Amino acid sequence: MNTAWWLRPAATLDRHAAAAAHARQQTLTKPPGSLGRLESLTEHLAACQGVTCPKLDTVWISVFAADHGVAEEGVSAFPQVVTGEMVRNFASGGAAISVLARTLGATLDVVNLGTVNDPGEIDGVLRAIIAPSTANLSRAPAMTREQCEAALRIGAERVARARAAGADLFIGGEMGIANTTAATALACVLLDESPAALAGAGTGLDDAGIARKIAVIGRALHLHADAIDPFERLRCLGGFEIAALAGACIAAAQVRLPVLVDGFIVTAAALAAVRMNPSVRDWLLFAHRSHERGHARLLDALGAEPLLDLGLRLGEGSGAAVAVPLLRTACALHAGMATFAQAGVSEKTAPPVEARLEPVS
Length: 361
Hints:
The chain is an alpha/beta fold. It has 14 helices and six strands. It folds into two domains: about 10-20 and about 35-55, no CATH class; about 60-325, 3-Layer(aba) Sandwich (Rossmann fold). It has helices at about 15-25, 35-50, 80-90, 95-105, 145-165, 180-190, 195-200, 205-225, 230-235, 240-255, 265-275, 295-300, 320-335, 340-345; strands at about 60-65, 105-115, 125, 170-175, 260, 285. The longest helix is centred in the middle third of the chain and has 20 residues, at about 145-165.
């Protein structure tokens, strides 16, 4: 039997390039380590790109939109029609991620995987409809196996397009009313946590709404308690856009394309991807710590140290886009600063020989 594509190992990081980048950092006109994480970030990107001086000139942002059957349980503060309306807003340039993509000079790739309020054909939006929505995960598996595989594949296909376009960095974003419920249910089963520990306000639920959300997730976890395999957990508790994001993370790692992970929902998808294929982890960078409850636990499980903590919880890939200038700055400093030799600046003075002698016992 052929191995599922998502189980194929990720590419190996180029340790020689990372070592060369580290060596360059030691020669730049600054005390070693004085640029903190900006230095380690460039070394990691060097390992991803296989070069001493990495660059992030070409950024690709894929926003996956899809609806969720669990919305019928009243777990969102917004009506489900908003998903389709936001697809149109992405394409017309009015959404936060649209503004950020323009500001960054990034490609914005909008993918409609299935919305109850179908906006139809729109310029700049790929119609990759799987179904109008997932099933209600508190009453049935969210996706059939075929649907989950299709969503994974669509994520991989967008990565292939990004790689063909010369992308240096991939960002995945999402849109889907009730998708914080799906992401929380998935996070609960992957982390072995209770819904009460992870469920948050999402788009703005009040206390009663959060309590209802916790109860719905609890029913879902009980219903799908036999789902042990990571793919099955994603299939039963995820969503089309969450599975597409997981597929994108895996495919990007397989083709040597670093991924900048956004907030709570994308991080849940990233954890699912890592549980499905642990070799993916090396290719993930984490943009920010979301205000959404539960995100910190996901980050801890992935051993992730996010770049920013701004109280963001919008989604769409917006937090990751906000972090791109920081990464670009790190690359610019690494490539553009003069070495001590180039600048004619004296290097650190070695301590006197006496100070370096080991004490005699």
